[in-house]
Design a protein that fits this description.
The chain is mainly α and 68 residues long. It contains three helices and no strands. The chain is elongated and about 80 Å long.
């Protein structure tokens, strides 16, 4: 009884692996969504961007200066 169940499980696993390989093999051309997901910009903008501002106020900064 255990031998039949084990054989059935192995057969189902082999069939599912074969079907998965067959389905992925028929889709040789990737979809446009997957190509756009991994696309990276070729030219990076180096002007503008986020403006740098001090993290603390002027009074807090001067209070910590002697300790550093």
């Amino acid at each position: 009884m255990i031998r039949i169940a084990l054989i059935a499980i192995v057969v189902v696993a082999l069939i599912s692996i074969g079907v998965t390989i067959w389905i992925t093999g028929t889709r040789s051309v990737p979809s446009t969504a997957s190509r756009d997901f991994f696309a990276v910009p070729q030219d990076y903008l180096t002007e503008g961007g986020q403006e740098m501002q001090p993290r603390f106020g002027q009074t807090e900064e001067t209070g910590d200066a002697p300790a550093n």
